[in-house]
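Section handout, structural biology tutorial.
Before the tutorial, make sure you can parse a SMILES string by hand: atoms, branches in parentheses, ring closures as digits. In the record below the ligand is zinc ion, and the chain has 64 residues. In the tutorial you will relate the predicted structure tokens back to the input. Do not try to memorize them.
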Amino acid sequence: MIPMQFEIHCRDTGPDCPFVARAETVEEVVNMLMRHVRSAHECDWFAIEEIHQAARTVIRGQAA
Ligand SMILES: [Zn+2]
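Predicted structure of the complex:
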């Protein structure tokens, strides 16, 4: 099985930000982005939820 790498670009979820999360599983890459969003962006609960939804639609998968 070819290892996949997933990535999420923070700016694809809304904020104008150069952060890119990369991981080998969808769960991990989403978690990584959410950790970054909570520590780097001032978001209320509602915005966090919206970014979480957006993250899942903008995940890019590629063979590593
Ligand atoms: Zn960001």
